[in-house]
Amino acid sequence: MSGVVSAPAGLRGAGRPGAWTWALVAAMVAVLFASPLIAVLLGSFKSPAEAARTPPTYVPDEPSLRNYTALQDSSAGVWTAIGNSALVAAGSVVLTVVLALLAAYGFERYRFRGSEAVFVLMLAAIMVPFQILVSPLYVVLNALGLTNSLVGIVLVITTFQLPFSVFVIRNSFAAIPGELYEAAAVDGAGLWRTLRALAPLLRAGLITAALFTFFAAWNEFFAALILLADQDRFTLPVVLTTLISGARGSVDWGLLQSGVIVTVLPCVVIFIVLQKYYVSGMTAGAGK
Amino acid sequence: MSGLLTGGVAPSIRRRPAATSRRRSARDRRTGLLLVVPALALVAVVFVAPLALSVVMSLSDWPLLGERTFVGFDNYTRLFADPQARQAIVFTLGFAAVVTPLTLVAGLVLALLVQHRRRGIGLVRTAVFVPVAIGFASASYLFLALTNSSTGVFGRLLTDLGITERPVDWLLRPRLAMLLVVLVTLWKTVGFAMIALMNGLHSVGRDVEEAARVDGAGALRILLQIKLPMMRDSVAFAATFTAIGAFLAFDQFYILTGGGPSNSTITAVYRIYNTAFIQGQLGYAAAMSLVFLVFLLIVTGAQLALLRRGRVT
Asked: What is the ipTM of this complex?
């Protein structure tokens, strides 16, 4: 590893660009990727009048929070949508993690007849994407009274996140030494107490499952677009379509930009805090 | 984001040695089943039942509202003669054929850039990866706000740099609309390929590289002839993931182009959506979906087979 910057660049072999060249290129790449988000963040602080100006300003002349306070106007519905999105995300994360934890424990610890076949079939479900099942799914959920319902969205997201979640949590169980289970069994601890005792060792798997489920739930667009009919049930990604549809000429660009920032911000913050779990989840997915 | 996990390769779990060899009582087996049943019940209702129902629906005239009738294979014969369906498939394949190699090449270049630890490396990796964590819908709204020809700063930037005379309306011309969607897709997904390929680069031992260098191989040759073949698992993973994501593209087209201009950017999933929920023909949409699923399974299956062969040799 050419680790620290103080290591003399170029000594470790020809062909490796010097530290300054690298820093310059890397900085340009970082700016290139961050600039769309930064530009919209800046745009969200324009006043509604400035946000509608042609040609646009790069940086707000007079920064204003009006686009953010306007989110609360009930006609736009963004405020309600924030609540709906939070409910869907929280519901999906809790339900997915609980169901996946129980199932992973069952698969790993109590092998029953056919359990491996069931496990493999469950993983195979990953290969059938949600988008393929939209029409029958709509019919099934409609029959259950779960269309136009946040509960319906939670069930759909949970179902499609379960295979991956069971897989990563089962991997966490598999890494626990057998003696720990034996010790728990000798203690006569019940299921609940055993799981609680093992929880610290399952941390990585649980956080990874929760993280992927959060992103899936918070960002889900297609399922929400199809299953939700009334504006007071809309989640954030869907409610933003109402801001741009209709007359394309009369879009409230300031409101759209503050709405996008509110949608994006939790993902960015949570990702930055927990990114190592995201990367480990990706590695698990790659079958390492 | 639902596309993120849909293309995953089902990996094999590491087996724990026979610590559990003591005989299981019937009670234990029942406990195991009870633990698994809640998850299975949900999967049965929300996954297995719709999958089975889609076969029935594909053989029926099944309107969104009203009477259903069994029509045999009518939907399938109609599908294979449907110019709109063919157009959607051709467009989707073209989109995937553009996006997948672009993403892999850009991802590899970025992976090479950020593979070694240096000061500030975390910042660069995070900047490239953050778009992956936000939704495709958010990314699309973001670029809609940036690129619209009246208030978007991207148009002003191109004008100020002298690249265009005045802000361009990206969504009025099919090629520009496509270019915009490709750019958004690349920005949103290339971080994933970068991390996957970076993991691959890290998996190639340093001694291998040193040995090749001693033999006088140049950096490019080491990359193309030694490293890439050795990290084929990572390449295959990134390729499958990117391709499946492109095959299933919907959000960015729905929000940015609305399928336009003049229906030039309608993907397979978009066509399924229109058929089911705009035209109300759920049965026909189910037939489209099943045919498309077979295609996706063939692609994923071919990828798995390639991976397995790579492991043996």
From this structure: 0.89
